[in-house]
Design goal:
- The chain is α/β, with parallel strands linked by helices.
- It has three domains: 79 residues; 198 residues, no CATH class; 181 residues, TPP-binding domain (Rossmann fold, 3-Layer(aba) Sandwich), CATH 3.40.50.
- The protein is 59% helix and 8% strand.
- It is built from 18 helices and eight strands.
- Helix 1 runs antiparallel to helix 2 and helix 4 runs parallel beside helix 8.
- The N and C termini lie far apart (65 Å).
- Complex of an alpha and a beta chain; in Rhodospirillum, the alpha chain seems to be made of two subunits.
- Keywords: Cell inner membrane, Cell membrane, Membrane, NAD, NADP, Translocase, Transmembrane, Transmembrane helix.
Length: 464
């Protein structure tokens, strides 16, 4: 294949990747966006193989590797529960980071195969590319492993604060920069392996103190890291498609991380330097002794059937209980009664960006009924019922009226402005941020205790 044709095909694949990102920005076009991305990747892989002089054995190994990967990916996609999607994404990020490290190692030990040797030494620009690719890849790898363990419940979601962690991180950061400089000056194995080892340690130490409430930011941040790692290795491989793809993923992940932080009224630096939150907290225990207004499924069904408008607020509790299908059925019952139904989505609801949108789309909730925070918040004052199913931190009024609260200033869904607030929860525990929610004890709040799916199904029976 000629160089001009290869460049043209890489350009086409890059355009398809951009169209894929555009499509994935909305549930209505997400399937089409996925298709664009798949076609673009197929073109990029085929073009890369066509431009290389490969023996039949190597081609066979590549095809075998693609086949194994396809089987693993297809099996994981079919078996994985939607509630486990955040940790699956984190696991995938770790593989991207590890791949970047392996490519950098291959380039270091077989530089002639990568055409990066000048006068018997790895050329200076390639040393920088390899160093950055390996460093970012290693940080992404261990950071994603920790994120996976936290999201999957195999490690506590609470922040794990190591003594003098900031001093350690600064020292390791300076050591990493020094090793990159030394490797640039003298490309020997010691400096290159130190770059990898220090980066692996940094990835571990950066993510382990981050609490569960900041996990959506961590997932999008690691997504960005994996993109930049791929872009750095793309330069080493002289592969235009990999550079384009990595830059797109890296920049989009960085933008998404900024949006997530803005949605939590947090700075990116404050998240990295030690997030707040965990899966348990002391303040919640105080709530046990306070009187709350408890209702039943029959009470909820009666109130909502006689309402003019209902705004549904889904959260992680809905995801855990797999209640999205029952929730959609409830919405259909209400619409049959002439009730206006809307769904309100907070940008950090769930455990990853877009988590709630994906679950509602899976349940075939109409896209035109789903609204983001900035578009729906003004509607709560006119709503008869705000139906909160598993969302806690993103509906906490302390973010508005308690300057002492850790989440003060965070944009939240102002559900308390509705005439009646219904809260489905298993108990009175705090949310993932470990912050008590005073909304539970307000006069217009009715608590519906129980499993989110079972409670919603009981409400549906009462409406029938």
């Amino acid at each position: 294949m000629s160089a001009n044709l290869a460049a043209l095909l890489y350009l086409v694949s890059g355009a398809l990747f951009i169209m894929a990102l555009r499509g994935l920005s909305s549930p209505a076009t997400s399937r089409q966006g996925n298709m664009y991305g798949m076609v673009g990747m197929a073109i990029a892989i085929a073009t890369t193989l066509a431009t290389m002089q490969l023996s039949p054995l190597v081609i066979g190994l590549v095809v075998l590797g693609l086949g194994i990967g396809a089987v693993i990916g297809g099996t994981a996609a079919k078996k994985i529960a939607m509630t486990a999607m955040p940790q699956l994404v984190a696991a995938f990020h770790s593989l991207v980071g590890l791949a970047a490290v392996f490519v950098a190692l291959a380039a270091f030990y077989a530089p002639e195969a990568f055409h990066i040797v000048v006068d018997g030494l790895i050329q200076p620009i390639s040393r920088i590319e390899m160093s950055l690719g390996a460093a970012i890849g290693a940080i992404t790898f261990t950071g994603s492993i920790i994120a996976f363990l936290k999201l999957d419940g195999r490690m506590s979601g609470a922040p794990i604060m190591l003594p003098a962690r900031h001093a350690i991180n600064i020292a390791l950061g300076l050591a990493l920069v020094a090793c990159i400089v030394l490797f640039y000056l003298s490309p020997v194995w010691l400096w290159f392996w130190l770059i990898i080892v220090i980066s692996l340690a940094l990835g571990f130490l950066l993510i382990i103190p981050i609490g569960g409430a900041d996990m959506p930011v961590v997932v999008s941040m690691l997504n960005s890291y994996s993109g930049w790692a791929a872009a750095g290795i793309g330069f080493t491989l002289h592969n235009t498609a990999l550079i384009i793809t990595g830059a797109l993923v890296g920049s989009s992940g960085a933008i998404l991380s900024y949006i997530m932080c803005k949605g939590m009224n947090r700075s990116f630096i404050s998240v990295i330097l030690g997030g707040f939150g965990g899966e348990s907290a002391g303040p919640a225990a105080k709530g046990e002794a306070k009187p709350v207004k408890q209702g039943s499924a029959e009470d909820a069904a009666f109130i909502m059937k006689n309402a003019g408008s209902v705004i549904i607020v889904p959260g992680y509790g809905m995801a855990v209980a797999q209640a999205q299908h029952a929730l959609r059925e409830m919405g259909d019952h209400l619409k049959e009664q002439g009730v206006t139904v809307k769904y309100a989505i907070h940008p950090v609801a769930g455990r990853m960006p877009g988590h709630m949108n994906v679950l509602l789309a899976e349940a075939n909730v109409p896209y035109d009924e789903v609204f983001e925070l900035e578009d729906i918040n003004s509607d709560f004052g006119q709503a008869d019922v705000a139906f909160v199913i598993g969302a806690n931190d993103v509906t906490n009024p302390s973010a508005k009226d308690d300057p002492q609260s850790p989440i003060y200033g965070m944009p939240v869904l102002e559900v308390w402005k509705a005439k009646t607030v219904m809260f489905i929860k298993r108990g009175m525990s705090s949310g993932y941020a470990g912050v008590d929610n005073p909304l539970f004890w307000r006069d217009n709040t009715m608590m519906l205790f129980g499993d989110a799916k079972k409670m919603t199904e009981e409400i549906n029976k009462s409406m029938g």
